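Entry type: protein chain
Record version: 2
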Amino acid sequence: MTREEFANILLPDVLHDRAYYEAKYPKRNLEAGAMVTRLAPSPTGFVHIGSLYQAIAAQKLAHQSGGVCFLRIEDTDQKREVENGIEGIINSLKQYEVSFDEGPLDNGMDVGNYGPYIQSKRKDIYQAFVKDLIIKDLAYPSFLTEEEKEAITEKQKKIKSRIGYFGPWAMDERNMSMEMAVQKVKAGLPYVIRLKSKGNFLKRVVIKDAIKGDISIPENDMDIVLLKQDGIPTYHFAHAVDDTLMHTTHVTRGDEWISSLPIHVELFEALGFKVPTYAHLATIQKEEDGKKRKISKRKDPEANVMYYLEKGIPVKAVELYLMTLLNSNFEEWYLANPKGNIQDFTLLFDKMSVGGALFDMEKLLNISKNYLSLLTAEEVYQNTLDWAKKYDSDFANLLEKEREVAILTLNIERESEKPRKDFAMYSEVKENIWYMFKENFTENLKYDWQKITDKTEIKHILDIYLAKYYDPKDDNEEWFNKVKLLCDELGYASNMKEYKQNPEKFKGNVADVSTVIRVALTTSSRTPNLKDIMAILGMQEIQRRVGLL
């Protein structure tokens, strides 16, 4: 029996051979130095913030070099696949404006010439390459049962050996004759196809990583599974075939995959493929009780990229924050170019962190505040409305009905050298501007009175101010001077220096009186420019609100 005949018995339904697929996916026609990168998530749940982090890196590296970034769905672990998992990945990334050049992008239909981009649709491709390995005596059938595997593991534990299927533990099946294997196949015994590893664990393989430099790690000597019993490949084998046929030049992925490097390098070499450049990104970590750990899908809501959308944190702010984690010099660049296009920034491997990237929610929110402060009032209004339509329909209805009031309010102290930074997410806009809408301002509201709390005194201050001093035509300086005149008339210090020198001479100061006006009209002691608020409300609404006290 020839090895080709043997391979045909083990894999009888393969439609094409290796040469067919190598011809079908020719080398890409790209300029020298152009990178081909990919994001290759599994549809086993929501998109993790780490996947978005990797997607931004892959996209940026490819596009700045004039290359290609594609999306590949790795769904070979079908037991863990969730319903609508592929659609969830594509839609989530689309909302974060991650733009792929190729992949299952058009309602699951492929865009690009190197598909299918969903691994479950590439079964024949993988089997063609496994068949080639069998013919070359680099792979063999394994009929090991679960019970037999467990027995081997127990023996290995007992003698404190490494755990796995390698060396002497695999020798019986490695040395099995083709005739004996065929008898087992014909008897209906289930089998997998394993790599016949040539590695030596006592030797080390050195891989040059684009971020971490030379990584020295023991060679792989495990006879890993290439094809499972159902003919579906394992992740390790599928990724080697796909990255070669799709001509991936740079594999950007989390550094939790470093331990798999020896397996992947051996697979590429066994298949006769060129090993791509690996760039292992620092894992996004979280500090908890003084210790660092990887952000967990199970424990941390912020692991889910949808968390930020639901909170109303702008997509661009999340991208800006992740860029600060990706390159140590990005923050300096962004401070110098706050309105610059991220595409103008060059992402560099040597500026990427070798260690863990610590996730800092407070820093993300500060970046978001800065970003939102640079938008126009109309942009904030529209983005808030879009968010509210999904997550707060009552607020969306109010925003649509009171569009002019909302935009005027959002514009207070915005178009200035130092714009206000009151909110970090669209979900916080409501709590910052609710009081500007007439229908929200009713009886029995809770007022944040500060120093002056006597209702009779409050009413007296307001009545005198509105009857004698308030004029909506005044500019800011004149408006405030009239508040000072009010203070002089009512026994409050209009000059803070005088008040600090002799506080006992006065009932209070100009800040206390201003606070009374502010709280009476908004319930809050902390708001944007009060003069602008009053101009938007108008005299009739001001008087109505004072009348509610």
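Comment: The CA atoms of residues 134 and 322 lie 44 Å apart.
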